[in-house]
């Protein structure tokens, strides 16, 4: 046999074997097949299992991954967005094949939320209502984005908004994202480019770092670092004028305003609707936001005050007078000493729980 013919036939057989191996590998890959359409209740989390038929152990292990949230109207979730959400969740997609381009998500019949202005008011922070779309002023050159109003389009901004909203969960009802106008321009979507977003810091933090990866159909991919500052539009307690220590926190010394707060400020701010029977324990200047450490409930018992302490032993209750060694309010456990034992050898402190003005109980 001619050597050239033999080599040619051998090469053909090798190519055929390689093709069979590739086909076999593809056929053995797990698959995520996007379904044409689904109905999801407005506000409900959308999992991968809701959008796709899953075949294979690796694909099925991703069934509960959240890839979106139901809305009042119909919208599309594309396969690129699904890939992005799975990557963010830490999934390894090398052995998974995606079939289908998108799924149309429609609201579940009979559960469409009221879309009037009154119904769009979100209850948050102990009764605070923040109307959707109401934006407070911010620093020059910075923009505030309401992540709840960003459509699920697969753009870099939409992906970032959804990632941060999911991270903050129930706290996202009054969440805004502060970004510079320059950065918003850098991540403006370009036709023909598929985007992925990778987090570069913790998502629940005062400053969040992202990397936006753009993959065009032809050409070199781009990588852009983005910084996002979470802000919270909330009601806060504000000093009406300069306030001294010991002044009661009431309508005369304070007022309620809606302000844009950082994550730390939102965590520290006192609930303006729960300040009854409190006084300032440190001075505050006019217009300053009142933190939880700035006010305290008025003491039910004061240091050196003589109080009645009750001790229950079985069915027998014993009451005696004691001297408070520290200040405290109802629910606090503080130290006392029995009255008349100050100069006695039997003098020793006892602990009791304050149950009201001038009264404490040994539990």
Verbal overview:
The protein is an alpha+beta fold and 363 residues long. The strands form 7 sheets. Strands 11, 12, 13, 14, 15 and 16 form a 6-stranded antiparallel β-sheet that branches. About 10% of the residues have low confidence. The longest helix is centred in the N-terminal third of the chain and has 26 residues. Helix content is 19%, strand content 37%. It is elongated, with a radius of gyration of 32 Å. It contains 7 helices and 23 strands. The protein has 4 domains: 82 residues, eubacterium ventriosum atcc domain (eubacterium ventriosum atcc fold, Sandwich), CATH 2.60.480.10; 112 residues, no CATH class; 64 residues, Antifreeze-like/N-acetylneuraminic acid synthase C-terminal domain (Type Iii Antifreeze Protein Isoform Hplc 12, Alpha-Beta Complex); 57 residues, SH3 type barrels. Strand 13 and strand 14 form a beta hairpin.
Quickly give the structural class.
alpha+beta
Quickly count the domains: 4
**How much helical structure, as a percent, in the residues?**
10-25%
Figure out the total of helices.
7
């Amino acid at each position: 046999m001619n050597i050239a013919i033999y080599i040619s036939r051998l090469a053909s057989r090798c190519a055929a074997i390689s093709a069979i191996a590739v086909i076999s590998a593809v056929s053995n890959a797990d698959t995520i097949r996007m379904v044409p359409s689904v109905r999801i209740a407005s506000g409900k989390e959308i999992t991968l299992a809701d959008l796709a038929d899953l075949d294979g152990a690796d694909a099925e292990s991703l069934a509960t991954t959240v890839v979106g949230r139901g809305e009042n109207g119909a919208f599309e979730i594309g396969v690129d967005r699904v890939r992005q959400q799975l990557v963010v969740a830490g999934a390894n997609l090398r052995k998974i094949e995606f079939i289908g381009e998108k799924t149309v998500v429609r609201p579940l019949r009979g559960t469409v939320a009221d879309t009037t202005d009154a119904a769009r008011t979100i209850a948050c922070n102990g009764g605070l209502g923040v109307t959707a779309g109401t934006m407070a002023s911010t620093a020059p050159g910075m923009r505030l984005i309401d992540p709840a109003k960003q459509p699920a389009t697969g753009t870099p901004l939409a992906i970032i908004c959804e990632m941060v909203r999911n991270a903050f969960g129930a706290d996202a009802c009054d969440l805004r994202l502060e970004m510079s106008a320059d950065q918003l321009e850098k991540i403006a979507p370009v036709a023909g480019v598929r985007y992925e977003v990778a987090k570069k810091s913790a998502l629940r933090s005062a400053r969040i770092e992202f990397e936006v990866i753009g993959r065009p159909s032809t050409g070199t991919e781009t990588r852009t670092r983005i910084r996002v500052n979470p802000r919270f539009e909330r009601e806060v307690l504000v000093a009406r004028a300069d306030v001294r220590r010991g002044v009661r926190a009431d309508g005369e010394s304070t007022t309620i305003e809606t302000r844009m707060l950082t994550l730390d400020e939102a965590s520290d701010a006192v609930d303006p609707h729960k300040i009854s029977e409190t006084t300032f324990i440190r001075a505050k200047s006019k217009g300053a936001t009142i933190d939880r450490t700035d006010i305290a409930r008025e003491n039910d018992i004061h240091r050196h005050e003589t109080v009645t302490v009750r001790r229950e032993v079985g069915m027998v209750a014993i009451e005696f007078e004691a001297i408070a060694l520290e200040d405290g309010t109802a629910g606090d456990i503080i130290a006392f000493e029995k009255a008349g034992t100050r100069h006695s050898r039997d003098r020793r402190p006892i602990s009791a729980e304050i149950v009201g003005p001038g009264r404490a109980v040994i539990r």
